[in-house]
Amino acid sequence: MKYRVIIEQDEDGMFVAEAPSLPGCISQGTTRQEALANIHEAIQAYLESLEKHNDPAP
Fold it and tell me: Which of 3, 10, 19, 27 could form a disulfide with 42 if both were Cys (CB 3.0 to 4.6 A apart)?
């Protein structure tokens, strides 16, 4: 499954990545590439948690 990811730079220069369709699934990195890699890991962990608790994926 594919999820849309939004990456924005915050006031401290960090890149914040969010998957809007997965509530609370947010990560960050010092570069866009790092933020993207981190959000991919966060999405995977989010989906694994849903599966573990028998909750449907959005």
Answer: 27
Domain count, the chain: 1
pLDDT score for 57: 86
State the DSSP string of 17-37: EE-TTSTT-EEEESSHHHHHH
User: CA dist 48 to 12, 13, 41, Å?
Assistant: 31, 30, 11
Query: Helix or strand or coil: residue 7?
Result: strand
d(CA 10, CA 51) in angstroms, rounded, equals 32
- pLDDT tens digit string along 7-46? 999 999 999 999 999 999 999 999 999 999 999 999 999 9
Domain range for 49: 6-53
